[in-house]
Design goal:
Layout: H1 5-18, E1 22-24, H2 26-44, E2 53-56, E3 59-62, H3 65-74, E4 78-83, E5 92-97, H4 108-121, H5 126-134, H6 137-141
Helix pairs in contact: 2-4, 2-5
């Protein structure tokens, strides 16, 4: 499975664009990408970003996320800041978009899926998304700290209507 870097980057930018020009929290961004990739695979048996996800204590985590977002920040596509939201907790990473995403890179079915993920999961915070992923077959069926097989998405029974 090859990583579709440009599609990956544009998906991040599109998420930011549609969700108030920013995403608060690495966890939220990670889970939105997870739902994009696993929902798309469940429906079409094809990879969207080609990312690999690991089962970590806070839910599925895309292994290339930090590298991709750092490259995007370097290219001035994204600003990654930190804010202290809660006393006693690590600062929250905030991803702010600097331009417009290039949606022409997405096929009609990809665009429809990314819009669906935004509509269904975009209003949830990182903790709510974490709890949701913990109850699903891909997370439950994977070994701790190991890769989550995309094939486990077929055991979720997602309603795509």
């Amino acid at each position: 499975m090859a990583l579709h870097r440009k599609k990956y980057q544009q998906a991040i930018l599109y998420f930011c664009w549609k969700l108030g020009k920013e995403i608060r929290g690495k966890k939220k961004l990670a889970k939105l990408l997870y739902y994009l990739d696993f929902d798309y695979y469940e429906k079409y048996q094809k990879y969207f970003t080609g990312e690999t996800y690991k089962k970590l204590p806070m839910g599925p985590f895309p292994v290339s996320l930090e590298k991709i977002t750092a490259e995007m920040a370097e290219k001035k596509q994204l600003v990654i800041g930190k804010i202290n939201e809660w006393d006693g907790y690590n600062p929250t990473e905030v991803y702010k978009i600097l331009g417009k995403p290039d949606v022409s890179i997405f096929s009609p079915e990809e665009k429809k899926m990314i819009d669906r993920v935004i509509k269904k999961y975009g209003c949830l915070n990182g903790k709510e998304l974490e709890n949701l992923t913990h109850s699903e077959a891909p997370y439950i069926g994977a070994e701790d700290k190991k890769e989550i097989p995309y094939e486990l998405s077929f055991y979720r029974g997602t309603d795509f209507n």
